[in-house]
Each structure stands twice: as structure tokens, then as C-alpha cells.
């Protein structure tokens, strides 16, 4: 199995489990950071330096696994690993976006398989976050008038309609539109609409996997 240069966070209050998971994941080639509580993880985590996923215990001494999941708000893929799972909890976790829910004991092979799948999601999310940052930087370079023009253009309005809406000459709109396309690095109207949709969505999403 080929691993991407990604990180795996482990949050588990059981010292022996935490050490065993850390050792397994490092031996498999992953950059791994372990935490004994949800609060310590929230205090130290850094999602800006590359794709990452979280292997998370359900029962923790401060926030529960589900509470931490809500705090993270789908900012990274989560694999639940617990000895206290039930159907209702599993459903709640999966509905909230967990990529997998595993019940201890679990084989090393299955765990590594699940982590690799979560990291595929993580890479997609990271790339989408990077794209969003770049789009927002381009958007920030627009003048207020260019933003107005872009907002109308992406709704499908023609230059003459935009000119009427803004009370200016159509040739002025053509100039603004050309500048918008250049600054946003949009090759077509479809590109511009895609960028606008990305900014509106704000957060990349991934498709959770349900184990049967």
C-alpha cells in the first residue's frame, strides 16, 4: 500500500491503546500525533500544514467523541474506534460525517485500510481548502465595482442587463468584466461561476463511508 505524506491524529484516553495505535501508524509510514483528551487535541492541532485524519475514541474524560466531532464541524475526516459503540451512536456519528465507526478489538489490517481511505478524503478536503484560499485571495483583489459586476455576471445576466442594473454604459461593464476574468484567472463564465460557488459553499465536504 502506498501512503501519501499525510498525518494521523489519535485521541484516546487509554495510554496503552494510544501507544499501540501510535506505534502501528508510525510503522505503517504515517506522521502520527497522539492526544489523551479532546481538549489537548483542540489546543494543539494544526490543519494548515497538510492533509490529516483523526482516529477518535468515543469515551473521553472531557468532551465525548461525538462532542469533539461537532466542535470540528467536518474540518477533517474522523474514524471512530471504540469499545462502547451501539447502533444509535454509530448512526449519529455517521450522520455527522464520520468516515467510519470501528468497534474494538479491530485488526491492524482493517484499521490501516480504513485510515488510508480516510486520508484519501483528507487529501481531497485539503486540496479544496487550498483552492478556496486562492480563490478568496483573487476575490480580495477585485475593486468594489468589479465585485458588483461579478455578482451579477455569475447569475447569468448579460452585459447590457448588468449595465442597466448598475446604471452605467455597457462598454464600461465589458471593461470591468474583462478585469474580473483576468484577476480571478477565469477562462470562461463557467469557471467564474465555479469560483463563486466555492466561496459561497465555504467548506469542502467529503462522502462518508458506511460499513456493513
From TrEMBL:
Gene Ontology molecular function, alphabetical: DNA binding
UniProt modified residues of type 4-aspartylphosphate: 57
PROSITE patterns hit by this protein: HTH_LUXR_1, HTH_LUXR_2, RESPONSE_REGULATORY
Keyword line: DNA-binding, Phosphoprotein, Transcription, Transcription regulation
GO biological process: phosphorelay signal transduction system; regulation of DNA-templated transcription
InterPro entries hit by this protein: CheY-like_superfamily (IPR011006), Sig_transdc_resp-reg_C-effctor (IPR016032), Sig_transdc_resp-reg_receiver (IPR001789), Tscrpt_reg_LuxR_C (IPR000792), WH-like_DNA-bd_sf (IPR036388)
Alphabetical list of SUPFAM superfamilies matching this protein: C-terminal effector domain of the bipartite response regulators, CheY-like
SMART domains according to UniProt: HTH_LUXR, REC
Gene3D superfamilies found in the cross-reference section: 3.40.50.2300, Winged helix-like DNA-binding domain superfamily/Winged helix DNA-binding domain
One protein family per Pfam: Response_reg
Location of the HTH luxR-type domain: 135-200
Residue ranges of domain Response regulatory in the record: 7-119
PANTHER family attached to this UniProt entry: DNA-BINDING TRANSCRIPTIONAL ACTIVATOR DEVR_DOSR (PTHR44688)
Protein name: DNA-binding response regulator
High-level lineage: Bacteria, Pseudomonadati, Pseudomonadota, Betaproteobacteria, Burkholderiales
Amino acid at each position: 500500500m502506498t501512503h501519501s505524506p499525510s498525518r494521523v491524529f489519535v485521541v484516546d484516553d487509554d495510554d496503552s491503546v494510544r501507544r499501540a495505535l501510535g506505534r502501528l501508524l508510525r510503522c505503517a509510514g504515517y506522521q502520527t500525533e497522539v492526544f489523551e483528551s479532546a481538549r489537548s487535541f483542540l489546543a494543539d492541532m494544526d490543519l494548515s500544514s497538510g492533509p490529516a485524519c483523526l482516529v477518535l475514541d468515543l469515551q473521553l474524560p472531557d468532551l465525548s467523541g461525538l462532542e469533539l466531532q461537532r466542535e470540528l464541524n467536518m474540518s477533517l475526516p474522523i474514524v471512530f474506534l471504540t469499545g462502547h459503540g451501539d447502533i444509535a451512536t454509530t448512526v449519529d456519528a455517521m450522520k455527522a460525517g464520520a468516515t467510519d465507526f470501528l468497534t474494538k478489538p479491530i485488526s491492524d489490517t482493517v484499521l490501516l485500510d480504513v485510515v488510508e481511505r480516510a486520508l484519501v478524503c483528507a487529501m481531497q478536503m485539503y486540496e479544496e481548502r487550498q483552492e478556496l484560499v486562492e480563490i478568496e485571495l483573487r476575490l480580495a483583489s477585485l475593486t468594489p465595482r468589479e465585485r458588483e459586476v461579478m455578482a451579477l455576471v455569475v447569475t447569468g445576466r448579460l452585459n447590457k442587463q448588468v449595465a442597466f442594473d448598475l446604471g452605467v454604459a455597457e462598454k464600461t461593464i465589458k471593461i470591468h468584466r474583462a478585469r474580473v476574468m483576468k484577476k480571478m484567472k477565469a477562462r470562461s463564465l463557467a469557471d467564474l461561476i465555479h469560483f463563486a460557488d466555492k466561496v459561497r459553499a465555504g467548506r469542502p465536504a467529503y462522502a462518508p463511508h458506511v460499513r456493513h
